Prior knowledge:
- This protein starts with a helix and ends with a helix.
- It has 18 helices and 15 strands.
- The strands form 4 sheets. It has a 7-stranded mixed β-sheet, with helices on both faces. A 3-stranded antiparallel β-sheet has the order 1-6-2.
- The radius of gyration is 41 Å and the shape is flat.
- By secondary structure, it is α+β, with helices and mostly antiparallel strands.
- The protein has helices at residues 3-12, 18-25, 29-40, 60-68, 71-78, 86-93, 97-106, 131-142, 149-157, 190-195, 222-236, 251-254, 286-297, 312-315, 325-336, 380-393, 436-439, 468-475, and strands spanning 16-17, 46-58, 84-85, 110-113, 120-123, 161-173, 240-241, 248-250, 318-320, 344-353, 365-376, 399-406, 409-419, 424-434, 448-457.
Amino acid sequence: MSAEEVLQKLSQESPLTSTQLAQRLNCDHQKIVGSIKSLECLGDVISSKLETIKKWQLTQEGEMVAKDGSHEAIVFYLVPTAGIPQAELMKAAGSVGKVGFSKAMSAGWITLDKTAVPPLVRRKVESVQDTTQVNLAAICSQGGDVVAEKEKVELKKRKLVQEITEKIYILEKGSNFTTSITKAETDLTPEMISSGDWKNISFKPYNFDALGVSPDGGTLHPLLKVRSEYRQIFLEMGFTEMPTNNFVESSFWNFDSLFQPQQHPARDAHDTFFISDPSTTTLTNQEYVEKVSEIHSRGGFGSQGYGYDWKTEEAAKNLLRTHTTAVSARMLHKLAQQDVFTPQKYFSIDRVFRNETLDATHLAEFHQIEGVIVDYGLTLGDLIGVLYQFFQKLGIHQLRFKPAYNPYTEPSMEIFSYHAGLGKWVEIGNSGIFRPEMLLPMGLSKNVLYFYVNVILDLKCCYLWDNLRMCYISMLLLV
Length: 479
């Protein structure tokens, strides 16, 4: 069915509705609507008016009733003059028996004679008029207007008819009506100008009120998109996010509480940004500070410590945090102050700062992703299982683990993944179980095991985003 056929019919008879056109051309109504839309773009060739009409339509069950009769009429005609036991009647009526019996009783067509043994269903009238079938047949052939509103509502309750809303077009000839369609040109080409054909060509009117294509805007930075993805994975795994809005940290929480000695190279100025104003802070909770000093200087809890003179002045220095593990230490210390221990799963994703020499693989600021799980009876196998689950959610399935050293974890493991693009195994993170020297001074039970996993997130290799997840995990996680 084409738009020309619509114009031909409209030239013979005007006005016409879209439903009448569908009947005349013996095609689907939606195809007529599509042709009308294309004709509207040609200017004032046709005049169309959209109207919404409501009409009644038989349901599948209603069509069966219109053909075979209502349920109550079927039940009535199954009752012989002498009567019939109810059970036998219901069996003969089949699926329509329950509704038909109830409706026939309500209409006063039949009665149940309980004086007979067994009770018999008898007719109360000689004949009936099946108004339900008559009304449905009328609606089917002539529309819903020929049936009273009250009766239509009753039929709708019985789910024999349904009211549907239909949008139709009323079509008339426009001021530029024609039965032949000439497509208007949309562009003026150099060839039209040079040949002079533009003088005889019909151009589509330019719509100065049309809006242009909206420019893209308001999208998240790629780094924030990846952060959101990681956060969602942690939340799916039952982790709670730690507060990480404190960029300036004391050396005590950043290093000392993690059993990292004060002479460690990472605490030198060429590796860490120290704050000049204020350069130091006041250490609170002196009882815990003394325990950390003791474990560093003389050991304890079965450890020999480092055997040096621990200095409060060094621990009080302010710096830009070099890792979010300082936040984990604060959270573990807070957890230790609870009267009753409760297992916890923490995570954080935020910025850390290191005094690096800037090059293709190092920046002074990057994001660290860290997770901590605290519970009884955890083992290294639990740690590996969590790591596999975490990275599988990122689409990374090939993992290897290698023993490593961290001042605050033992055992420690570096995490490697196979990068298909590079054709080799690359480091993607670090993990381990926190040492007793770190946990026991906080007051946590030695029977509770802890492990953490951290990865470093950055935009150093954003040009490799063809494999976004793998780039962030294997190319950008450079410690």
